[in-house]
From TrEMBL, chain A:
PANTHER family found in the cross-reference section: 39S RIBOSOMAL PROTEIN L40, MITOCHONDRIAL, LARGE RIBOSOMAL SUBUNIT PROTEIN ML40
UniProtKB keywords: Mitochondrion, Ribonucleoprotein, Ribosomal protein, Transit peptide
A single Gene Ontology CC term: mitochondrial large ribosomal subunit
Annotated gene: 101740994
Alphabetical list of Pfam families matching this protein: MRP-L28 (PF09812)
The protein's name: Large ribosomal subunit protein mL40
Domain of life: Eukaryota
InterPro entries, sorted: Ribosomal_mL40 (IPR019192), Ribosomal_mL40_metazoa/plant (IPR039145)
UniProtKB/TrEMBL annotation, chain B:
Locations listed in the record: Mitochondrion
Protein name: Large ribosomal subunit protein mL46
GO cellular component annotations of the record: mitochondrial inner membrane; mitochondrial large ribosomal subunit
Signal peptide feature range: none
Primary location recorded for the protein, binned into one broad class: mitochondrion
GO terms of molecular function: structural constituent of ribosome
Family: Belongs to the mitochondrion-specific ribosomal protein mL46 family.
Pfam families given in the database record: NUDIX
Organism: Bombyx mori (Silk moth)
Domain of life: Eukaryota
């Protein structure tokens, strides 16, 4: 009877209820016993891992991930060649919002603009001619002075036409719209130029 | 295409309108933050309150011609008083050339002697830029007249110490200098058109 129960453990469907059997026998009873049915391997005993090793493993995992992040960021920091650049997506999406309707001008407006452009061209031409005339006048005055100097003494003339090597590089600044305020404390502080300089 | 600040202003305005209409999809943070319009208003207010340096300096108001801080928009020329014969005239500083000097060295020496060595100037070239000759009223030292060569130099810094010096604009040059002299000087100076 007990053997049956033991074999019933092999079956899948649930079988008999538990029955309390106390067997009494006068002779030595022949009992068969089969080992417990094991559907799986018995659980291996959990070994205690050194916490230092656990931490080391976690560290290694984290470092690996950080290295990958750094590599990706380095890629992002490098500038892409212009041919590979694309329009950023948020601009593409909002393209409609950014566009303006084309401007319609009336005929009078267009004509007025054309006439204004012609007047401006005339004014600029006069200004340009005046500039050239002034430069010519100044150069002629110098030429005349040098001619007179030549008549005076040739030595002085030769010394006068020698180029002045101490002049360049030369800078002068012109008038400003509003002059600088004396002893002005700039609210943003002084401006220190840290741009890189390259010399020959 | 509208640019970004204009877009943020439009966005802020829309958010404000939505907030008024009390619709559901309002980004409350965007409305509470300083809007672009507020920032522009604050900036404009600061600009209107700021006092720029005045173009009309004190020297302008007093009519003081000896300082370089007058007529900041115009080009000024240094002139001194000089005695020729019996009367003193306003001329550019001039003096005699000495043997063994180039003309430019003469000019530098004259400026140092007549104006003082505190005045820092930079000569542009070795060559003169103008010429003027005049006859003495009577023969002096066996010479009939004098030839003057003008040199152009830019003012860097410093004050004249030795003699009274005036800084004149073109119009004043016209008035104060003798006629033909003034014509010769005007030839090598850039004309004023305003």
């Amino acid at each position: 009877m007990s053997i049956l129960r033991q074999f019933s453990r092999l079956s899948i469907c649930p079988t008999v209820k538990f029955q309390l059997n106390r067997n009494i026998s006068t002779t030595s009873a022949l009992t068969f016993k089969i080992t417990e049915q094991l559907w799986a391997e018995p659980m291996k005993k959990k070994k205690k891992i050194d916490p230092a090793i656990v931490k080391a493993r976690e560290e290694r995992r984290r470092k690996k991930i950080e290295k990958q992040i750094r590599r990706l960021e380095k890629n992002a920091r490098q500038l892409k060649p212009i041919d590979e650049l694309e329009v950023p997506l948020h601009l593409m999406d909002s393209l409609k919002k950014y566009k303006r309707p084309p401007v319609q001008l009336s005929v009078e407006e267009i004509e007025a603009r054309e006439l204004l452009q012609k007047e401006w061209a005339r004014y600029k031409r006069d200004e340009y001619m005046n500039n050239i005339a002034q430069v010519d006048r100044i150069m002629a005055a110098q030429r005349r002075a040098l001619d007179r100097l030549y008549e005076e003494s040739e030595d002085l003339y030769n010394e006068a036409i020698m180029p002045d090597l101490q002049l360049l590089p030369y800078t002068i600044s012109g008038p400003v719209a509003t002059p600088p305020i004396k002893d002005y404390e700039s609210p943003d502080g002084e401006y220190i130029d840290v741009s890189k300089k390259w010399d020959n | 295409m509208k640019f970004n600040t204009k877009m943020t202003k439009i966005h802020c305005r829309k958010q404000a309108e939505l907030f008024k209409a009390e619709s559901q999809d309002v980004d409350i943070d965007a409305v509470n933050k300083v809007t672009a319009q507020d920032f522009e208003d604050a900036a404009n207010e600061e600009y209107s309150k700021f006092k720029f340096g005045n173009l009309e300096t004190d020297a302008d108001k007093k009519g003081d011609k000896t300082s370089t801080e007058r007529c900041l928009q115009r080009h000024l020329v240094l002139v001194t008083q000089r005695k020729l014969g019996n009367d003193s005239k306003t001329l550019l500083p001039q003096g005699h050339w000495q043997e063994g000097e180039t003309l430019r060295q003469t000019a530098e020496r004259i400026v140092k002697e007549q104006i003082g060595s505190e005045l820092q100037i930079k000569f542009i070239s070795n060559a003169p830029c103008g010429f003027y000759k005049y006859k003495y009223p009577s023969e002096m030292n066996g010479k009939v007249g004098a030839k003057i060569f003008f040199y152009y130099a830019n003012y860097k810094s410093g004050n004249p110490t030795k003699s009274k010096v005036n800084w004149l604009t073109r119009k004043e040059l016209d008035e104060m200098l003798p006629q033909k002299y003034s014509n010769a000087v005007k030839e090598f100076l850039i004309e004023e058109t305003y």
